[in-house]
């Protein structure tokens, strides 16, 4: 009986260990035990059941948040794709407008050419018409009559030359008129072709503009839906940012407190080593820079949704050792909202590092301790707002986050 009660007491003590380090389970309550022991056992089990329920509710809430974040990420990806389509459509519209403007100028020039050709053909048609009416009224040239009515040989030659000149002029007029008609027909065909091109481009333009408007409406709907989903995460976002603000304030305060001591211990040289020696550059799952993750820090310089990832994520196997990137003084932050189990290290000379989402800390590690470069300080986990095992690693200079790859060469 005492052994069972002692076991119950031990398990009850374990119930106080943080949820990330143990899984609670109920025990068997023996009805034959003294009433107070039996009731204590039942009360313990009731508490354990409530603890398990709370744990499941927390996991469910985290799952829902991840689902919402996944939806938001999908919407951001869709918005990015639509933005690219809109940019391409705007470029096509501009290109089409330039082509239409060029064809319009060509059409205007061609209309001028056709107008001049029509005027020239009209004059030649009129000359030919006059000549045909004259021939119709007087008949063709009668060479026999020219010979018989000639007063002299010279008169005959003059008449023959005049007749040849008239015939040559008629042939030239007909040739020129034929050429002019062919040129006019070709120019009219070119003009019709250019006008058909303009008409086709205008139809294409209308279709592209209609697609553009549909894309814009889809974009607006996606952004409105993303905004609605973001409302669901506002409380979590506020909590994460409040935690970040507290950590930022702590960095500044701890830097003032520990900077000289950390530098004296050998830190703050500006030289850092890779924080996860058993998982190299290939394990980087997310780099420093603009991000679509809603719970990240706001940065107006980043594209929509204007968030920035302030460090690099290194995704190795769960429990992989994490080492101090430089000698410094350790400050522990167990169970923070965003980073989960976190370590902040002050290295001196304005340098500090952050290690987030840790499974657990190295045995014996406490806040205020000096950790030499390369010593194990923690083990990789997935605590806080994390979708899988990784360590979030930051390098800060005078409390301003910088790209760790500047120092690490990744």
Explain this structure to me?
The protein folds into three domains: 2-71; 75-232, Helix Hairpins (Orthogonal Bundle), CATH 1.10.287.1490; 245-408, Distorted Sandwich (Glucose Permease (Domain IIA)). Helix content is 58%, strand content 15%. It is built from six helices and 13 strands. The strands form two sheets. Strands 1, 5, 6, 7, 8, 9, 10, 11, 12 and 13 form a ten-stranded antiparallel beta sheet that branches. The protein has a three-stranded antiparallel beta sheet with strand order 2-4-3, with no helix packed on it. A hairpin with an 8-residue loop joins β3 and β4. The two termini are 61 Å apart. Residues 1-24 have low confidence and may be disordered.
Main attributes?
disordered N terminus, ten-stranded antiparallel sheet, alpha+beta, three-stranded antiparallel sheet, elongated, Glucose Permease (Domain IIA), Helix Hairpins, 3 domains, 410 residues, single chain
Strand and helix order: HHHHHEEEEEEEEEEEEEH
Radius of gyration based on Cα positions:
45 Å
Number of domains: 3
Report the major sheet. 10 strands, antiparallel
The end-to-end span amounts to: 61 Å
Q: Helix/strand-derived class?
A: alpha+beta
Strand content: 15-25%
Oligomer: single chain
CA-based shape: elongated
CATH class of the largest domain equals Mainly Beta
> What name does CATH use for the topology of the largest domain?
Glucose Permease (Domain IIA)
What is the assigned CATH homologous superfamily of the largest domain? Glucose Permease (Domain IIA)
Secondary-structure arrangement, i.e. CATH architecture of the largest domain: Distorted Sandwich
Query: Which blocks of ≥5 consecutive residues have pLDDT under 50?
Result: 1-24
Secondary structure tally, helices: 6
Strand segment count: 13
Nearest-integer average pLDDT: 78
Please give the share of residues in helix: 55-70%
